[in-house]
DNA sequence: AAGTGGTCTAGACCACAAA
DNA sequence: TTGTGGTCTAGACCACTTG
């Protein structure tokens, strides 16, 4: 049975207030890394609530990486080790729209073939697999915004072979069609050379930001893409606020 | 009272199995974006468990971004919009150690001053605030690995003024001393010029990867740092597996 | 051996949005 | 108005780890 209890006074639910309280003590330095925080039963008494409510709060703080829990020993503030941040990788169209510029894309090269040795170096597809190679230029305000060089594993996305990619760019089309379970991104800086410099309309040697993404569905590779952003203007932004739950 | 129930057969707790089941249906495409998934009371019946157990599972799937919940309407598979990935930003020392190379760092410039106009452009510190500007070169195997240009707000970290930064690099020292609540990272590509090219021992114009990080504690700025990695070799890696909870 | 966290139950009341 | 999710309770048993 549920007894009468006081109404929630302030910012939302009780377990959120517990989270906020503990988080504040950790972030202020009052509870430094390594320090044991009160046991569940102590917090239960302190907040006058059921154990499950405290447990819910602490579980979320574990997920946020602020605390660690060990049976019999207790709950401890984690030692900060490596920072992690959530990197948003938007669709190029959305990215251009966010700048308030008109967007356009065009397929500049297309080739359906059996995977070559070079293809297999980019992406672990079977030697005899059919792949679709696409090069796509994305424009913002009639100027080159980025160049996309993509390889699609046609056994994972057979429909791609017949798709003209008129309405949707290859990336947007794939994200709607093929569910993926794993992705890996690599970000690096390169100098634009030859065809790339030409397509992006920059001088050879111009530094460019490169985002390479591989996507799998289960164990099967789906696509590999290399997006090249010209010049020093483009920025990827990642933010992290610990315990934003 | 708790009735007898079957022992947990397979991979862990019941709510984890519920998570795995639903996740599998979403990732396989069986439940496409926008589709309503069973109500809590249906899942409760299906798994023969209490409502709270289902709720716990669904709450975690919300946190993972796989589903959205609307009162009275139900729970729906989210539309994929922008991909997000967790970017690990390790300490430089750990980064070099991971390559199996000997690590060393050296402070190459140090200046304590009141914030200049240029400093305030980098970071929103008060006009009369004391700041510590540091330039630090990190070496791997006796060769320049990256160049760190840092500004520390001395009102947030007063001890930094007297710290020689011999044992720990400024970044490692700060992470241990000053709790931070918010960080923002910007990643871009630039060409090495002048002093930077000299310090990194590369030709002028060499493309470099730049990671700029600003850190706050509450509303107060703590530090701003710009880390420049020379050449085309360095890569930042980010991975994403949806719903790894 | 004892005490911690991990998980689960069978209820309950409430807030909110859709019909 | 109605039915959904949001939150909470007061128990319970179990697993693990440490002393």
Largest sheet features of chain A: 6 strands, antiparallel
Task: Specify the CATH architecture of the largest domain in chain A.
Answer: 3-Layer(aba) Sandwich
Calculate the terminal CA-CA distance of chain A, rounded to whole Å: 30 Å
Please report the first level of CATH classification, the CATH class of the largest domain in chain A: Alpha Beta
What's the structural domain tally of chain A?
Answer: 2
Low-confidence stretches of chain A: 1-5
Mean pLDDT of chain A: 89
Arrangement of strands in the largest sheet of chain A: 5-6-7-10-9-8
At CATH level 3, the topology of the largest domain in chain A is Chorismate lyase
Q: Which superfamily, in CATH terms, is the homologous superfamily of the largest domain in chain A?
A: Chorismate lyase-like
List the quaternary state of the chains.
homodimer
Q: Work out the strand percent of chain A.
A: 35-45%
Classify the helix fraction of chain A into a percent range. Answer: 25-40%
Largest interface in this structure: A-B, 57 and 56 residues
* Backbone shape of chain A: elongated
Radius of gyration of chain A: 25 Å
Order of helices and strands of chain A: HEHHEEEHEHEEHEHEEE
Number of strands of chain A: 11
Counting helices, strands and paired strands, the structural category of chain A is alpha+beta
If helices are DSSP runs of H or I spanning 4 or more residues, what is the number of helices of chain A?
Answer: 7
């Amino acid at each position: 049975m549920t007894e009468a209890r006081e109404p929630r006074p302030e910012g939302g639910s009780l377990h959120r207030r517990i989270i906020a309280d503990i988080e504040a003590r950790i972030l202020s330095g009052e509870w430094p890394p390594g320090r044991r925080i009160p046991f569940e039963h102590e917090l239960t008494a302190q907040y006058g609530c059921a154990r499950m409510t405290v447990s819910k709060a602490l579980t979320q703080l574990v997920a946020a990486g602020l605390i660690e829990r060990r049976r019999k020993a207790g709950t401890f503030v984690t030692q900060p080790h490596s920072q992690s941040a959530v990197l948003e990788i938007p669709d190029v169209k959305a990215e251009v729209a966010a700048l308030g510029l008109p967007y356009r894309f065009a397929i500049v090269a297309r080739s359906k073939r059996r995977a070559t040795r070079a293809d297999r170096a980019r992406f672990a597809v079977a030697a005899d697999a059919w792949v679709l190679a696409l090069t796509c230029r994305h424009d913002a305000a009639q100027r080159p915004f980025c160049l996309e060089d993509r390889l699609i594993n046609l056994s994972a996305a057979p429909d791609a072979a017949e798709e003209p990619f008129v309405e949707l760019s290859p990336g947007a089309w794939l994200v709607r069609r093929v569910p993926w379970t794993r992705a890996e991104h690599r970000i690096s800086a390169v100098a634009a050379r030859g065809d790339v410099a030409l397509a992006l309309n920059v001088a050879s040697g111009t530094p460019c930001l490169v985002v390479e993404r591989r996507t799998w569905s289960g164990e099967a590779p789906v696509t590999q893409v290399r997006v090249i952003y010209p010049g020093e203007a483009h920025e990827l932004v990642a933010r992290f606020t610990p315990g934003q739950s």
